[in-house]
Amino acid sequence: MHGVHVVGGSNPLTPTRTFLACPSLQFMNKNAQKYAIYLLSKREYSVLELETRLNQKGYTSQEITSVINFLQENNYQSDQRFTEAFVRNRLNKGSGPKKIIAELQSRGIDICENQLEITDQQWISVCKKVREKKFGNGFPVSINEKNKQIRFLIYRGFSYDHVKCALSDE
To answer: Does the model's pTM come out above 0.85?
Structure first.
């Protein structure tokens, strides 16, 4: 843990302030910290996204590393929390597991399908809802219509097994 410095004293009218001495904060730019906290107040960000945004603002890699460490130590930034919010958001938008995983990987989060903690039945249910929203309750009668629906659902990130179940009468 970091050292604690107390300012104040024996005078009861002087407020006592406690400061944490943190050697990693010596490189931290307060503007970078404020900007990162501002970003995180709007939504969750992955570490890679925060690094990119801070880099675009012109902060040095030392400043960025220091800010990220500060944010993680104080639980302002969490890749776990980001992943949960991201998966929930994409699931509500009707994205399949493959698309969600690809988007997470592009944001610096390495994860596989079984780490998403969503069962195949849940994926099939989402796939059916997406199909019904786009094409209605009826099942495709022609091969061309069926292929069109399959392509659409595969593009949304569902596996062929999920699509096959979503297109069946079961």
So the answer is: no
- What is the residue-wise DSSP string for 5-39? EEE--S-TTSPPEEEEE-GGGGG--HHHHHHHHHH
Residue 71 contacts residue 50 (beta carbons within 8 Å): yes
**Is 88 in contact with 80 (CB distance < 8 Å)?**
no
Average pLDDT over residues 120-145: 92
Phi-psi group of 125: left, alpha or beta (phi > 0 → left; psi -120 to 50 → alpha; rest → beta): alpha
* Residue 169 confidence (pLDDT): 67
Token pair belonging to 29 = 């730019």
Residue 128: name the closest of 91, 98, 165 by CA: 165
Rounded CA gap, 29 and 140, in Å? 59
Strand locations in the chain (E): 3-7, 17-21
C-beta atoms surrounding 170 within 10 Å? 5
